[in-house]
Each structure stands twice: as C-alpha cells, then as structure tokens.
C-alpha cells in the first residue's frame, strides 16, 4: 500500500515538474506571471474537485465507451444476425448490469445507466429493453467531467514524452508519440480531411481495441498476483487558423 502511494506521489511530482518546466520556458512569462497562473489554476482545480465530490458519481467516459463497445462487439451480446441484443437493465447476463461487470465497473452501474440514458446513447424498446445507439461517446458541451478527461489526456501525453526521453538505449522500446502536420492545407480540403482522418482513425482504434481486449488479464487464480497496467492510445486530429 505504501509502495503504491509512493509511486502515485512520484508520478504527480513528475507531472507537476513537467508542467512547470513548460510554463517556465515560455518566452514572455515572468516569475510573477507564473506565480499568478499557478495560484489561479490551483483555485479553479479545488473548486472543480469540490463540485465533483458534491455531485457524487462522476460521469466516466472510458467506462461508458467500453460498455457500448462490448455491447456491439462481444458475441455474448449479439444476436444470430450479429446485431446488438436488446438488454434488460438489471439482472444476470446478458444485461446492461452484466456489461458493467464485464468491464469491472460494477460499482458504477446505477450511475452509468443514468448517464447512458441522459446522453441518449441507449434507446428503449416497446418491451422495456434497451439497445445501444452510438459506438462513439460524443459530448455536445464542455462539462466539469470533460475537463477532467482533458487533464488526464495532458498528463498521459507528458508521461509518454518523459518515458521516451528517460531511456537512452537504442534497443529500448518506446511508446509511439508521432505527429503529421502541414502549415498550408487549403480550406476547401477541410471536409475531406475530417472524413479521411475519421475513417482511418476508426479503423486504427477498432483494431487496437480488439487487440487490447483479447489480451486483458483475467481474474483467474493464476493471474491474481500479477499487477496489470493501464494501456491505450489517444488519437485526435486538429485544425489551426
């Protein structure tokens, strides 16, 4: 327990160090500016954290995405025609509750079911069962929970860069951290760019997701003592100007 706490503190320290280093390297930022920005950011973070605690169960985008994906891809939840099976919200498998058990988020089920309904990612049939509407979780507005996701994305990017730069050996496997960019894409190509990136990205993410899911550790007796790690890949396109 102490070892885990120490590791968490070390990771937090490295994240803060990386962020402060980036800020300090900004050419127009003075010491006073940095102190002011740090103070303001800390105040906003404290208020957001307090608000999240007051709301109770926060919206978990990762878990909801895993539930929808498993519902649409796992044979356990598909009909003979390969379509998602209409599910009861609660009860033994197959059900929405069992989906949350499968992704190891049983404690999030009641709140997660409310969130799926609120975000309209499930539709109700005449028989009172539910069907998934979308595979991709898209949030129409910025919410405090989404800000937490953005912060997590930044933390993971910084951690990847620091991981890759901390190993000097040529044979060391590094995490992928690549980017493609042109400064002068014609504006009339923007719709085509969006479509192409989305199509290619979906293929890549779906393939990687299948690979990861097929290799997830089970809770069988022989694997209980092996500590797993969280692994994934975040892909996004961008437009500037």
Could you walk me through the main structural features you see in this protein, from its secondary elements to its overall organization?
- The protein is mainly alpha-helical.
- Among the domains are: 61-132; 178-241.
- It has seven helices and two strands; from the N terminus they run H-H-H-H-H-E-E-H-H.
- The protein has helices at 2-24, 31-55, 61-73, 96-102, 109-118, 144-165, 190-214; strands at 122-124, 130-132.
- Strands 1-2 form a two-stranded antiparallel sheet.
- Strand 1 and strand 2 (130-132) form a beta hairpin.
- Helix 1 crosses helix 6 (144-165), helix 3 (61-73) packs across helix 4 (96-102) and helix 4 packs across helix 5.
- The longest helix has 25 residues, at 31-55.
- The radius of gyration is 21 Å and the shape is globular.
Helices and strands, with pairings:
Elements: H1 2-24, H2 31-55, H3 61-73, H4 96-102, H5 109-118, E1 122-124, E2 130-132, H6 144-165, H7 190-214
Antiparallel strand pairs: 1-2
Annotation keywords:
241 residues, mainly alpha, two-stranded antiparallel ribbon, 52% helix, 2% strand, globular
Helix proportion of residues, in percent?
40-55%
Structural class: mainly alpha
Give the H and E element order: HHHHHEEHH
Number of helices: 7
Specify the overall morphology. Answer: globular
- As residue ranges, the low-confidence spans are none
Counting DSSP E segments of at least 2 residues, the number of strands comes to: 2
Give the integer mean of the pLDDT values: 77
Largest sheet: 2 strands, antiparallel
Rg, please?
21 Å
Strand portion: under 5%
N- to C-terminal separation? 48 Å
* Biggest sheet: strand arrangement: 1-2
């Amino acid at each position: 327990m102490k070892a885990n706490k120490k590791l968490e503190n070390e990771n937090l320290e490295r994240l803060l160090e990386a962020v402060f280093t980036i800020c300090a390297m900004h050419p127009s930022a003075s010491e006073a500016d940095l102190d002011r920005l740090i103070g303001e950011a800390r105040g906003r973070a404290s208020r957001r954290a307090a608000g999240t605690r007051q709301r109770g169960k926060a919206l978990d985008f990762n878990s909801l995405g895993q539930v929808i994906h498993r519902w649409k891809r796992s044979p356990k939840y598909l009909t003979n025609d390969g379509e998602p099976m209409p599910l009861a919200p609660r009860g033994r498998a197959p059900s929405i509750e069992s989906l949350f058990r499968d992704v190891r988020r049983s404690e999030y089920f009641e709140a997660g079911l409310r969130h799926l309904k609120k975000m309209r990612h499930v539709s109700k049939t005449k028989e009172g069962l539910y069907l998934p509407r979308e595979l991709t979780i898209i949030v129409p507005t910025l919410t405090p929970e989404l800000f937490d996701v953005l912060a997590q994305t930044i933390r993971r990017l910084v951690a990847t860069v620091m991981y890759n730069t901390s190993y000097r050996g040529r044979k060391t496997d590094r995490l992928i951290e690549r980017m493609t960019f042109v400064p002068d894409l014609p504006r009339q190509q923007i719709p085509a760019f969006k479509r192409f990136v989305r199509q290619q990205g979906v293929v890549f993410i779906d393939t990687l997701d299948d690979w990861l899911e097929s290799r997830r550790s089970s809770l069988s007796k022989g694997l209980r003592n092996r500590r797993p790690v969280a692994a994934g890949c975040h892909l996004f396109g961008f437009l500037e100007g």
